[in-house]
């Protein structure tokens, strides 16, 4: 009973942390009217960004970061209650139905998680170890002694903070935040189009249950980069559909930069994901050259700052200790072969059918491109797909050891992360289908 | 809550019925009702043991038993002979102390306790774990359950 109540309280606490005051949202959104899902979407990004900054100040002897978190919690709580009272005064819903649905799903998945506590292999060996550095009172400077010091720490730090501030301090309470992030990202991608609540409900539930399996929350960090990538692509979509051609002034740019800066501190592969985004964006003709140069500069600053921070923390810079260290140009002729290429292709095809949402998204993207060749955002997605495939092939072709085992272990996880680019095609296709259908109906009536 | 229901009711009964049936199917599929029941009836420690096995894989059940049985408040080195991760994280909140005790998890012997024949743990890398003897004859067995041992150096 206590554990169930603790889960409910924990979900409420996470919601409050991700519910910044409305006036703050105006800095990140071009629309004056922001729905609850976009509110939480911006809130969760700001919350993770705040945790990234606070992680650098975490010390055993000081409660500084917990005081900061407490102040933020109280401020957010005040505005949450104020909004609730306003909504009652306006005779709207007592609780927004979308928020209620989110609460319900987080609770259902948290109950599932509470019965499937087993962490994955990498999670036990690397990510949990980083979390334990903080749990034992170590600071960010102690990460160099943890296994795989070249992996970034943000996901483990979030895990630590949210299990620390829970009532029962159980490890899995930290992972409830991962569930929350996943669900907010799916809700936000479904809300990218304007549809009725019932349609939104069906669309959201369909996407969630196409993706959901409890193993996604076994401590691996892929779910975080996947969810953040969905939010990042949502904001790219909003940027592409910005009312003015003066894209530099869109407030979504700030959110895009913040999301990217979080992503590079989740996993090393995430750096490649944002480079894929950047390349696809640069290939788009919609934007002026100045804006593109500015984007390159911003992303370079992000990557360089990460490099210097790693240097300062005495952490290694390599992507992954081990296999790629032995990579030499003279061995290229041996490792890049048709046989290995075909093997990767075989596993990629298996992967497409394993991660059904990836397959579905690409099919829908192709259909939309067939009917609407000039849609710039669809072309952006197509470029992202091409670059993702190139990334997957190069990652494995350059792996200097036999491929069977590594493809078995990691390809699905890597593909799952990149599928975050394309989930948006599902609501976009629904919208496209509706428009086409309604348009046809109108013609028939005439 | 009532206001939401009121609003939905006005819109369409069929939608609510479809929704409820859909929700029920999904909850049934992920075993929500059973898991919700276990959340009430099984403690966190019991669920941990169910997930990580008593003696097998990470063997958290065994680690919990010896921690409680011997009132252990310090870290004991753990050697897991299976291909599961080392579960020393379970004792992470205990203090560091020099000890002559060691825990063997999922340890399979070829023949008898006194055997000197090659050991039979296929997935274990004997070279990278050379701080301890792998022969039970070098230890006093303090507690054993299946293939998990709490040992003390002789």
If you had to describe this structure to a student in words, what would you say it looks like?
The complex is a heterodimer of chains A (446) and B (154). By secondary structure, chain A is mainly α. Chain A contains 19 helices and no strands. Chain B is an alpha+beta fold and 154 residues long. Chain B is built from five helices and four strands, in the order αααααββββ. Chain B has helices spanning 2-11, 13-29, 32-41, 44-52, 60-69, and strands at 78-80, 101-105, 139-145, 148-153. In chain B, strands 1-2-4-3 form a four-stranded mixed beta sheet, with no helix packed on it. The longest helix of chain B is centred in the first third of the chain and has 17 residues, at 13-29. The interface between A and B is medium-sized, with 32 and 33 residues.
Question: Top keywords for this entry?
Answer:
heterodimer, A: mainly alpha, 19 helices, B: 154 residues, alpha+beta, four-stranded mixed beta sheet, 5 helices, 4 strands, 36% helix
The parts of chain A where pLDDT drops under 50 for at least 5 residues are none
Summing up helix and strand content along with how strands pair, one would put the structural category of chain A as mainly alpha
Please tell me how large the radius of gyration of chain A is. 22 Å
The residue-averaged pLDDT of chain B reads: 80
The number of helical segments of chain B is 5
Shape of chain B: elongated
What fraction strand of chain B?
5-15%
Biggest interface, chains and residues, is: A-B, 32 and 33 residues
Shape of chain A from CA axes?
globular
Short characterization:
The complex is a heterodimer of chains A (446) and B (154). Chain A has 446 residues and is mainly alpha-helical. Helix content of chain A is 70%, strand content 0%.
SSE blueprint and pairings:
The complex is a heterodimer of chains A (446) and B (154).
Chain A: H1 2-17, H2 22-25, H3 36-55, H4 64-89, H5 97-115, H6 121-135, H7 154-164, H8 172-190, H9 197-211, H10 222-240, H11 252-263, H12 269-282, H13 289-312, H14 332-335, H15 338-354, H16 356-371, H17 376-397, H18 404-419, H19 425-445
Helix pairs in contact in A: 1-5, 1-8, 3-7, 3-8, 3-11, 5-8, 6-7, 7-8, 8-9, 8-10, 10-11, 10-18, 12-13, 12-17, 15-16, 15-18, 16-17, 16-19, 17-18
Chain B: H1 2-11, H2 13-29, H3 32-41, H4 44-52, H5 60-69, E1 78-80, E2 101-105, E3 139-145, E4 148-153
């Amino acid at each position: 009973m206590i554990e169930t109540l603790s889960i409910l309280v924990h979900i409420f606490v996470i919601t409050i942390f991700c519910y910044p005051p409305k006036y703050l949202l105006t800095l990140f959104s071009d629309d004056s009217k922001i729905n609850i899902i976009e509110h939480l979407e911006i809130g969760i990004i700001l919350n993770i960004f705040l945790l990234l900054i606070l992680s650098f100040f975490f010390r055993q002897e000081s409660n500084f970061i917990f005081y900061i978190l407490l102040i933020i919690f109280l401020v957010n709580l005040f505005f949450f209650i104020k909004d609730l009272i306003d909504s009652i005064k306006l005779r709207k819903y007592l609780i927004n139905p979308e928020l209620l649905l989110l609460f319900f799903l987080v609770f259902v998945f948290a109950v599932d998680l509470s019965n499937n506590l087993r962490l994955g292999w990498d999670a036990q060996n690397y990510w949990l170890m980083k979390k334990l550095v903080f749990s034992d009172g170590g600071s960010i400077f102690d990460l160099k002694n943890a296994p795989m010091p070249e992996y970034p720490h943000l996901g483990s730090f979030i895990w630590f903070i949210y299990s620390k501030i829970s009532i029962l301090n159980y490890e899995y309470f930290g992972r409830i935040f991962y569930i929350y992030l996943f669900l907010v990202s799916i809700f936000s991608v479904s809300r990218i189009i304007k549809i009725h609540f019932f349609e939104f409900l069906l669309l959201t539930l369909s996407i969630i249950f196409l993706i959901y399996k409890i193993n996604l929350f076994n401590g691996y960090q892929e779910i975080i980069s996947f969810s953040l990538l969905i939010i990042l692509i949502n904001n790219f979509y909003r940027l592409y559909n910005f009312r003015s051609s003066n894209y530099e002034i869109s407030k979504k740019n700030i959110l895009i930069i913040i999301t990217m800066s979080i992503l590079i501190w989740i996993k090393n592969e995430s750096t490649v994901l944002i480079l894929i985004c950047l390349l696809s964006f640069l290939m788009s003709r919609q934007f002026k050259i100045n804006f593109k140069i500015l984007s390159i500069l911003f992303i370079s600053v992000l990557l360089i700052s990460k490099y210097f921070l790693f240097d300062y923390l005495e952490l290694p810079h390599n992507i992954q200790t081990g296999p790629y260290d032995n990579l030499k140009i003279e061995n290229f002729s041996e490792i890049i072969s048709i046989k290995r290429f075909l093997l990767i292709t075989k596993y990629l095809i298996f992967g497409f059918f394993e991660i059904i949402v990836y397959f579905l998204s690409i099919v829908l993207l192709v259909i939309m491109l067939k009917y609407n060749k000039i849609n710039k955002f669809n072309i952006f997605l197509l470029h992202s797909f091409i670059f993702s495939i190139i990334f997957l092939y190069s990652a494995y072709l350059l792996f200097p050891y036999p491929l069977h085992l590594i493809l078995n272990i990691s390809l699905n996880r890597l593909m799952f992360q990149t599928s975050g680019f394309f989930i948006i095609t599902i609501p976009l296709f629904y919208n496209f289908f509706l428009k086409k259908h309604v348009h046809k109906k109108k013609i028939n009536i005439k | 809550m009532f206001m939401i229901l009121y609003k939905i009711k006005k819109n369409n009964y069929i939608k609510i019925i479809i929704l409820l049936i859909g929700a029920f199917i999904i909850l049934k599929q992920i075993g929500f009702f059973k898991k919700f029941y276990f959340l009430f009836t099984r403690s966190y420690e019991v669920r941990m043991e169910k997930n990580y096995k008593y003696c097998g894989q990470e063997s958290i059940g065994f680690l919990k038993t010896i921690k409680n049985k011997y009132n252990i408040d310090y870290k004991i080195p753990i050697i897991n002979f299976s291909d599961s991760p080392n579960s020393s994280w379970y004792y992470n909140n205990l203090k560091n102390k020099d000890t002559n005790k060691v825990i063997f998890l999922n340890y399979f012997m070829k023949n008898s306790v006194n055997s000197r024949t090659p050991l039979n743990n296929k997935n274990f890398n004997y070279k990278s774990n050379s701080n301890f003897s792998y022969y039970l004859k070098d230890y006093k067995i303090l507690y054993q359950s299946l293939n998990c041992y709490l040992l003390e150096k002789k």
